[in-house]
Amino acid sequence: MRDQPFNPADIHKAIVEQQKIQDRKKLMVNGVLLLLLLAAPFVMYPVFLMKILCFALFAVAFNLLFGFTGLLSFGHAAFLASGGYTTGYLLSNFSGLTTEMGIIAGTATATLLGLAFALLSIRRQGIYFAMVTLALAQLVFFFFVQSEFTGGEDGMHGIPRGELFGLI
């Protein structure tokens, strides 16, 4: 048993030291992740890397809505599909279009679809919000599956593989 109580200055010093150690660990981990990110285009298969980045962006968008607001949305797949189909359609049918312009057009399409979804579901909460976004996502799914310009159930073919900023 200890006769003297803990000194508050010693406790504060120990806490500060522990925070410095944690900050160094975070800095090292972030540095390694940055190096891996910079090396990825040179050591990974480009198409696989693009898929990783697309699904990572999908996950970040889902986390932003569900993680911070608690709203469970099933509309994200519809936004991803509308942007992807728009980009693919434009790149395969308009030869003068660059990959970057196609991606910007796809992003604009997904944004407009998101705005339409928001106008229809903004006043809902909980399970009702989830069900409205699920219904709208299914509507978009069936639209793309049954459309001629998307290739229907076979999907789109002949989309040229371009370069993104000359890196990928």
From TrEMBL:
Membrane topology of this protein: Multi-pass membrane protein
UniProt cross-references to Pfam families, sorted A to Z: BPD_transp_2 (PF02653)
Residue stretches spanning the membrane: 27-48, 55-81, 101-120, 127-145
Major localisation: membrane
Cellular compartment(s): Cell inner membrane
GO molecular function annotations of the record: branched-chain amino acid transmembrane transporter activity
GO (cellular component) term, any one: plasma membrane
InterPro entries in UniProt: ABC_transp_permease, LivM-like
Keywords of this entry: Cell membrane, Membrane, Transmembrane, Transmembrane helix
PANTHER family, per the entry: ABC TRANSPORTER ATP-BINDING PROTEIN, HIGH-AFFINITY BRANCHED-CHAIN AMINO ACID TRANSPORT SYSTEM PERMEASE
Protein name: Branched-chain amino acid ABC transporter permease
Source organism per UniProt: Marinobacter nauticus
